[in-house]
Structure prediction request, 114 residues.
Amino acid sequence: MRPRKTPALAARVIRTAMIWAARKGAACLLTPEMILTGYHAGFNQGERDSAIRDILAPACRETGMTLFLGTGNKIAPFGRSYPRPRMELLILGPRGKPLGAHHKVLLAGSDNGV
Prediction:
């Protein structure tokens, strides 16, 4: 997978990969880190959330797969905003519901000023 210009475009590619993997008998798919939003702080949180809700959660239900999704996230648990975006591994279960997430404290190099 390579980065796409928008979360929706990336989500469509991920969905296609999920369908392919499900046909091969896979139970889960692990995507590259930050594939949904790209390695930058300027991603649109609303577009990210819509891609997950409207494309990827339905793809989980359609394929019965668990998705380990590499994305960025600006919203902390319970709706608080992070001061800076975090790298996230979001786990969507086969019913399209979040099962958990891991947020990295370390940011992508471009966001760290490195």
